[in-house]
Amino acid sequence: MQAKYFEERERALLGERYAEYYAAPSEEAARGVTVNRLRCTPEEFARLAGLALRPLPFCAEGFAVEEPDFKPGRHPYHHGGAFYSQEPSASAPAALLDVQPGMKVLDMCAAPGGKSSQLAAALQGQGLLVSNEYNAGRAEILRSNLERMGVANAVVLNSDTTALVKAFPAFFDRILVDAPCSGEGMFRKEPQALAQHNEGLVRQCAAIGREILDNAAALLAPGGVLVYSTCTFAPEEDEGQIGDFLARHPEFTLVDTGASFGSPGEANRCGEHPFDVSLVRRIWPFQGGEGHFMAKLVKASEGEGARPFKPEKPAKPCKEWLEFAGKYFPELADRPLLKAGELLLLPPETPLPPHKLRVMRCGVAAGTVQKNRFVPAHHLFTAFGHTCTNQERLTLDDERTAAWLRGEEIEARTAENGWCCVLVDGFSLGAGKVSGGKVKNHYPKALRNLK
């Protein structure tokens, strides 16, 4: 650690513990993967992936990959959405929300999508996930990652959190606020975070986090649960933030996270509003992750709930879609459609109230009608490819798998003529079209392993 402000602050707060807590590690930062339960169980992944894995304590789906030359983005299972590559301790906050199928869940600061994919997996396709990201470029990355992970019941928004409150007051059962922060837990992984760090940045991030938390309070339904997290150690963004929030919001109660990993919070970081710091959780660099802070809050069950609303009317029946779905996706043929320009969408079964926010994706992009024919979208196959009636089934050691991910045409062995879903060990790699014993490659060029 070299940032003068950071070191002076942490030495004053930790005393003799500083050397232990921030000792130079003897090894590189751990590379973690979080298994996507929409695709498989952690046990199945460990058996099939062909990787040296070590279970992590931060969530049941987390593993450290103990292979120095591991390139997650090139692994076929990454393309198939079976795992998300993320810093190990970053997998902890989403698991604390106790999301159950059928709930309405909001990830307020969701890009690049690792935590949102965990929340989606917990919902198991039931209920609604709203994943919001203020930065437009990062919102596009979020959309792409949720598509790769096969998420079918998400609405991806690109909005300010204040606008969310106006659109969806008291609507959500669970909210995750992984707040924009000063990134002190990223110093080892991202040297730029250390280079740009200063006291002013900490204060700025604390102010942003305060606003987002207040908006989260208004968005949460009575009796709902809110988890707040950061990847920093700064008191103003962690214990101090929670103490101030509780002072402003007496309708909230701080509860135990239930986590056994890491360490309790620090009383000398609470500032003007002390509380029982044993209820919050910290992960320090020496505890197997780069660093995280987490707090779990419950809103009082009394209070006004969400306003009633009329869902958006579905699009008129589309004969081209009905013909296509009846042949390849019969389970989807009766699902109502929405229309966004020329794109047909399969929206989540749990609707959002009407709003005027910028929507990056609502449910699943099914496809478009071109020259009186239905042309399917990539997302249709990542979300529902396992149900497609025509499949080209590959395995991890099949040479055709690498060829497919390079964008090449491959031999058809299990699929018949027409559209098909190409899968590796059951994980969808998108759409192909079979003719003359070959599968024409429709895997998006931007996603291919070209190097």
TrEMBL record:
Domain SAM-dependent MTase RsmB/NOP-type stretches: 21-300
Pfam families found in the cross-reference section: Methyltr_RsmB-F (PF01189), Methyltr_RsmF_N (PF17125), Methyltranf_PUA (PF13636), RsmF_methylt_CI (PF17126)
Spans traversing the lipid bilayer: none
Listed PROSITE patterns: NOL1_NOP2_SUN, SAM_MT_RSMB_NOP
InterPro entries with a match to the protein in the record: Methyltr_RsmF_N, MeTrfase_RsmB-F_NOP2_cat, MeTrfase_RsmB-F_NOP2_dom, Nol1_Nop2_Fmu_2, RCMT, RsmB/NOL1/NOP2-like_CS, RsmF_methylt_CI, SAM-dependent_MTases_sf
Molecular-function GO term, any one: methyltransferase activity
Chain residues that bind S-adenosyl-L-methionine: 109-115, 133, 160, 178
Name of the featured protein: RsmF rRNA methyltransferase first C-terminal domain-containing protein
